[in-house]
Amino acid sequence: MIDRIAGAVIFMISAAAFWVARDYEASFGDPLGPAIFPQMVAAAAAILSIGLILRPDPNPKAQPLHAFIRQAMTLGVLIGYVLLLEPLGFPLSTMIGTTCLALLFGAERIKAGLTGIAVGISLYLIFDTVLGLPLPLAPARFG
Amino acid sequence: MSYTRNLIAGALLASGLTAVTPLTASAAECIAPADPGGGWDFTCRTVGRLLTELKLQDGSVQVTNMPGGVGAVAFANVAGKRADDGDVLVATSTVGVTQIAQGKYPGGVDVMRWVGMLGTDVGVIVVPADSEYENIGDLLDTLKADPTAVPVAGSSGAGGWDHIRLLMLADAAGMDGDAYKAIRWVQFDGGSPAVTQMLGGQVGAVSTDLGEIAGFVESGDIKILAALSDEPIPAFPDAPTAKSQGFDVTGYNWRGFYTGGDVSDDAYQGWVDELKTLFDTAEWKEAAEANGLITVWRGGDEFEAYVADQAKQMEDISRSIGVIK
Amino acid sequence: MDILTSLLSGFAVAVTPLNLALAVFGCFAGTLIGALPGLGPVNGVAILIPVAFAMNLEPSSALIMLSCIYYGCMYGGRISSIMLNIPGDEPAIMTTLDGYPMARQGQAAKALGISAVASFVGATFATLGLTFFAPLLAKAAIHFGPADYFALYVMAFATIGGVTGVNPFKTLLAAMIGLLLASVGLDPGTGTARFTFGSFHLYDGFDPIVAIVGLFAVSEIIMYFESHAVAGTGPAKLGRVLPKLREVFEGFTASIRGAVIGFICGVLPGAGASLGAFVSYSTEKQISDKHGTFGTGDPRGIAAPEAGNNAASGGALIPMLTLGVPGSGTTAVMLALLVSLNIQPGPLLFERQPDLVWGLIAALYLANVVLLVLNIPMVGLFTRLLSLPQWLLMPIVVMVSFIGIYSISHSTFDLFVMIGFGLLGYALRKFDISLVPVVLGLLLGADMENNLRRALSISGGDFSILLQSPIALVIYGFTALMLAFSFGIAMRRRPAVLDK
After folding, report:
1. ipTM rounded to 2 decimals
2. What are the sequence ranges of the domains in chain B?
3. Partner of A92 at 20 to 30 A CA spacing, among C22, C29, C119, C458?
């Protein structure tokens, strides 16, 4: 069943892509133009997705609720980390992000905190100072 | 392998690596609006390195790569977030101005302050050494008779700077818009790939910057039909300019910098002076020539006016050939 | 004879105590950078160029150090593929197919050992080719036109269905998704913005590294909770820390075949290491997968693509040095490196600057030996990674991936894209759709389309150009053969599959 849903979703996306691509045109100098190739690919994807709808594999096992909650929380931590990266600066946001992730993966609190601090500082040193790839240090930089 | 031992090992590794590279960073930052390895990246890294070596800056100039949208992402970033940050330089070139003129950046040339240009590459039209075409007139005559007769290649897409330079020549030869639009244009990912495909017999001529393909001219594999410069190119004095053959077309691709639009006059003038000092050194001449650039200086107000003028010209050409409506 | 004298003089340049030390440092640093997800060889070399300048090295010494970093990165990319199922760089994606299952079975050391030897075979083969046939091969490669490259990509995608996963429909579908994703961004032919929905951030399309890290690394940590809750599997077994000597030579003949195929792909400037690894793997699978063991930890499934991708990156140096044409992002950075050392690659390089070229070639031999010697004991270091508790390993992997991406692009947008790819990767895994074809589609899609359009630009829209080149016809013939062959194998193997 779930394969059929996936097939339907992919079919709709391919159809949408085919539809959006019809507007792409080259005024001159390019006989094939920017539209044909994506349309060919979208058409192939649509046909294959119909195959998926007609001949689905058996459903995969669903995860238990507690696993699902942790997955959602992990995703939340990742998104929060990206949102806070520039406002808080790299070392601080990385400390928080690493600590949260370590806790989600079942670390003891103290170890998670220590890991966070160590990862935040050492990654900053390695990337910014050693490799010369500038990272935002303090909250002020990007305002 | 205990947890503490891992931490210590990591810290040692970090501090050990730190000791290898005694770099002190200066406040100055050069943004290369492309991935590492391209022309803009080269401009930033070379100028940044020389500014440090010549002690014009204390410590190393940080080079930040900010790829995206042929420079549009860096442009948007500086315009939006760092318009008054006097420590930032952004590398750009004629390609960036072409993008601006065709409305592909979020803003026009007046959004930024244009600091200066340090050198320029020259556009050329080349054919294989054993080609039947002896001069640019031969090639243009053939195209005039049948625009589809010779497929021409370059490193930009249709409507990009390499293509526009070819069309400017066609225009100067008296072809009308419908005729020169029919010329077959093939885009490759750089001047060298275009030239090697020409040597492999896939296309008949190449329009691109000289710098990247100079080696093929020196080795005798290809010949220059026309150099799109006012004066003959110092490295190849025998190569005729388009002007000397009666086609009044020039096509430079300069390398320079802009900074945010709200940067103070002091900071702006500081950059102009610093780059001028850099320009006057033998080190810059050497680095530029190694990359096939001709050293030309324009800075401050003169450069501002030059860029505005070029953008206007580019916009007119783009409109007349139908790249923008 | 001439070549040997030049090579000897090259070794005289390369083998000084300082240069040897730099070679060891470069190999070590390169392996580490290559192993970090998100920082592939492209960025590894680009990042360390200023370090080389800061050390005030002679051009030849800087060149030796940086080419060791380049080769080191190529060696290192496979490590996270095997240990974590996260490719360290683009060409290493094929290595996840058999490397990771082998590591899960407690044979990580063996997998790392096999891949180290295969990498050595591939890279050495390519360096030999570079030494003796560079100008000749470059002359041959320029006759490969857009129509021929297009045929090569058609071959890759036509044979992809048989390469990964159980259900060929899903594999093909995954490849199409990848190809569709590849068309996002500014179209290089005309500058048209496709599927960007007005965002400048999408103008350059999806960076393959961002996609790879998202698809593999981010989806891995989301999947982690589930696989643990459902199947109750612990972390991979550690097994032996160092491989037995005999084991590392398993799949040796596969690595020879992989090296030849990869090298050919490398010499063609439009093909590159990812295609090299892919074609090596799929050919090996067609030839030797008699019992359906590929994809479950077959040594040949590690040896072939590793030899292939290292041979391809070595082979890619040929058009780069002799023509100034970089075949891939990585060689583009090497090109930039040479230029910044005032070395202008191109047809005159071998005449003008023989000392540097032969020094470089000697350095590549050196790098290979150093890497092999260095990598065998390092196997112990890396296998111990698996003994780290998951709560420590997983957050570090995630943070390194995120910051590797951010430090290059300085764009939080890229990080969101990466999380998005993580969700996509999670969904695909749930549906039992292999991730590898998605990445291949994304990596090769733009080149496939561009070459098709170039061919048609040359012919003015006449499709018959695609079949006029004898090279293309040979490739299509070969494709048909491979398809017939794999169809035959599939028919014979069918009962065994049904038993499962």
Report:
1. 0.91
2. 22-119+254-321, 122-252
3. C29
